[in-house]
Amino acid sequence: MCTAPTRGLPAWSPPPPVPRSRRTGWRIRALDDIGLPFATMAQISLIVSTQVHGAALGLEAGTEALRTSDLSRDEWTANRQGAVELALSTGRLPMIARFGQSEYEASAPYRIFDFGLTRLLDGIAALIPAEAPGGIRGDLPRDRV
Fold first, then answer.
1. Cα separation, 109 vs 62, whole angstroms
2. d(Cα 23, Cα 67) in Å, to the nearest integer?
3. Phi, psi (deg, nearest 5) at residue 140
4. How far apart are CA 31 and CA 132, in angstroms?
């Protein structure tokens, strides 16, 4: 498999291990027969996987930190309120100073995951041809197409 040359690295890379190839093939197969070029299906497969894995790593790190501290997210935040107020009082963080309760709630890890994945899937939906085989595009709600 050829890749773009990178400084100091050969212009080729070995094929991925078989288990990873099987998962990639499974994900691409889920996109088959909806009218997308194979390269686009491969890109979609990889970007959705990257989004989910990246979000999972962040969620895992946050969950582990909360587990080891024995505090909830709200308790952890409340314990640091004084330090936050001190940092904001300098005026050097004007955008962060605008955070209120709704922004705090919107920044919850599961909400960030949902927001990101929804935007990604909406963008992918826009790539699906209007007359996709199997009526897949026609099955999408009108406000989501």
1. 8
2. 31
3. -75, 140
4. 11
